[in-house]
Amino acid sequence: MTDTAESSTSTTPPALVQIVAGRPHPIGSFRFFFADQRWEWSDEVAALHGYAPGTVEPTTDLLLSHKHPEDRDAVAGTLAAAVRDGTAFCSRHRIIDTAGAEHHVLVVGDRLYNSTGATIGATGYYIDLDGGLADLRKQVLDETVPELVGARAKIEQAKGALMLVYGITADQAFAVLQWRSQETNTKLRVLAEKLAAALTALGGGPLQQRTQFDHLLLTIHQHPDQSVTA
C-alpha cells in the first residue's frame, strides 16, 4: 500500500462485511498522522471499539485505553517506534470494547506519504481475529474449490507464512488471505502464489523481515504475475 494524504480514507468492502457471519464489522481501515498524532478510523473500527459512527474522535490515548492491560505497553512501544523511525508497523493484540468484551485483533499498517513522497504517517487495517472465521472459511471453500485443488500447496505456504509472522491460527491466516483477495479483487490462488513467490526475497533480521512482510501483504497484488494463470 502506498497511500497518500490526499486520498480519501479507504472503506471496508461491503461484500467482505456481508460474508463474515456473526460479527457485523470484522475489518476496518485507519490512518495515523505522525506529526500531530492524529487518527482517522472507519465506522468499522469505531464499532469494533464499541462506538457508534461519528460519536467520538480517535486519539492515541483513547486507542491505548482500549488495549488489554497486558498488551498496552507493547502497542505503545510499536506506535512510538513507527513515529520515531517513520516505518510501517504491525501488532497482534487484544482490545476491550466499551461493553467490556475482549477482541483479538491484527493491526497492519503501511507508510502514508504526502505529495512529495515523504512519509507522514501510516495507513492500514484492523482485522478482528474472532469474527466469524469458521463460516467465512466454509463459504470461501464452497466458492473456490476448483481453484484450491490446483493451488493448494501455494495457499498452504502463504497461510504458513502468515501464521509464522503474525502468530495466528490456520483459519485466521486463511481469512486474512481471503480479505486481501476481496480487497484487491485478486483471485485467492493468484494472490497466494504471488505471496509465496515473493517470500524468498525477504532479508535481514526478524524485525526487518516483519516490516518487509507487512508491506508485502498490502502490496503483493500489484506484483507482476510469474507463472500464475488466471
Commentary on this structure:
There is one protein chain. With 230 residues, this protein is α+β, with helices and mostly antiparallel strands. The chain has two domains: 3-128, 2-Layer Sandwich (Beta-Lactamase), CATH 3.30.450; 133-222, no CATH class. The chain contains eight helices and six strands. Strands 1, 2, 3, 4, 5 and 6 form a six-stranded mixed sheet that branches. Residues 1-25 and 144-148 have low confidence and may be disordered.
Task: Name the descriptors.
Beta-Lactamase, WH-like_DNA-bd_sf, RNA binding, Transcription antitermination regulator, disordered N terminus, PAS_fold_3, PAS, 230 residues, globular, six-stranded mixed sheet, alpha+beta
The CATH H-level homologous superfamily of the largest domain: PAS domain
| CATH architecture descriptor name of the largest domain | 2-Layer Sandwich
> Biggest sheet, open or closed, and with what strands and sense?
6 strands, mixed
Structural shape: globular
Number of E-type strands: 6
Task: Give the SSE string.
Answer: EHEEHHHEEEHHHH
Strand content: 15-25%
**How many domains in all?**
2
Please state the average pLDDT score.
76
**Poorly predicted regions:** 1-25, 144-148
Report helical residue fraction.
40-55%
